[in-house]
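[job 0417] fold request received: Parvalbumin
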Amino acid sequence: MLGNKMVMTDLLKPEEIKKALDAFAAETFDPKKFFEMVGMKAMSAENVKKVFQVLDVDGSGFIEEEELMFVLKGFSKDGRDLTDAETKAFLTAADKDGDGKIGIDEFEALVHE
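[job 0417] inference complete; emitting structure tokens
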């Protein structure tokens, strides 16, 4: 995976990312609505998993709570940080096995829920 890391705009349209980020700039972040707005709900499971890999900054196979706070930056450098409350709500929505982090299958399930 070295040196050949995908970027979000390889997978999603920049204008859709911008529209979704703008929608949640001053509104409470809703991951499901956001994923739908950027076009992820319509993507194959395989492509959703590619998005996950872009967001999994440390390559651990999980998006931990610390990474989750910066998840919007993974879509665009202009993305804002999530608040503690938004981060916890996102984690609660996706973390089905209760291990405190989001695995790739949990992420894909949340997007296609």
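[job 0417] notes: The chain has a mean pLDDT of 94. Helices lie at 8-11, 14-23, 31-37, 45-55, 65-68, 71-75, 84-94, 104-111.
[job 0417] exit 0
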